[in-house]
Amino acid sequence: MPSDDASASPSAHTPAPTGAAPAGTPPTGYRALLRNREFAGLYVGFTLTVAASTLSGFALGMLVDDRTGSPFLTAVSMYGATFATVLGALTLMSVADGHRPRRTLVALQCVSLAGVAAQAVPGLPLAVRFGLLLVLGFFQSLGTGTRLGLLAEVVPASTYALARSLMNVTSGGTAVLGFAVGAVLLRHLSPHEVFAVAAALTALGLVTVATTVREHSARTPDPVDPARRPGLRRTWATNVELLSHPGRRALLLNLWVPNGLIVGCEALFISYDPEHAGVLLAAGSAGMLLGDLAVGRLLTAERRRRCAFALRLLLAVPYLLFAAGPPTVVAAVAVFVAGAGFAATLPLQEQLLALTPDPVRGQVQGVESAGRMTWQGIGAALAGAVALYLTPGTTITVLAALSVAVTVLSRPFVVRSRPPRGEKPIE
Which residue among 34, 78, 98, 122 is buried most deeply as judged by most CB within 10 Å? Predict the structure, then answer.
């Protein structure tokens, strides 16, 4: 990322989280991070949750495509849960910074388990399945905010980007395996049986978190609500304060919109090439894995800042090739290369963390994640709607061009969002 797009490292602006390792001896690699029992528990629980989500989303997408043949409904079925994440961000996201985040996370994962298990019931009408998607999306958004708040508690601030990188790398790798395994399972099992497998993985993730993560409750007072009572009022007050800062608005725009449009492209893979959709989806996830590994593990914070704008362009430009209707091999390579561009979220997330007060970091990161997921749903719905009038390949090209335009036009605002060296997070 160019230096004018960058922020100072979050470690320069954010005090070490409660329970973190001493500032002088931060973990320097993935193995060192995984020796932290609590981080390992969050990491394994997250991995199992991603695996379950990938399997259930792919199974539902294939089920809906088989029943309806509609690219719109198929795209929405794969990413529809993301629509409800915005409801969590607007109403109860303040639970992410409550006094008992571990207990909150365990309770939310219990709700997710019930929802995934319900999808395994044969004969459910599609309307009921879409309703379950919305319920799951709402509670999953709260769970994400709580998990990220805990993550900032259990690792030193100087290794936050490294921890997020590992989780992103794992997300990509798990998605690759999930799509591949999902395609194989659906040759031998019904979608309902694949949902049951996803429910089992969700249950394992729940048990892992419950047995490894301890409770965290000691934080400094919330500058918005010193009493720190989670609820609608506190959520709204913190969100208003978050969005009132122009730098944070610019960062959120870049974390949400370009990514969401490209996820819309991915949501059309089944309609674009049903026979090879799994290959294209796996290629994108593999590219994301490689990008996050290189950017998070191999690059310094300064180099991440210098590469970020190029990565944001890389995310979308290869999809312009779909205008020519490339063969599957070429399309898969383009999707793989573009997937590396998702690593641009790492420096942007570091910059957002640097502008965030400690007491509300769980909610702010939850809002960021919920907004990103909501825009994934919007991108999928937009892609499906446009594909009703244009071919899937043309629609993919249009969405990619829009992503490039948003990235280029918003760059000056991202540049100005960088806090001066030594400036503390805005309270």
Answer: 78
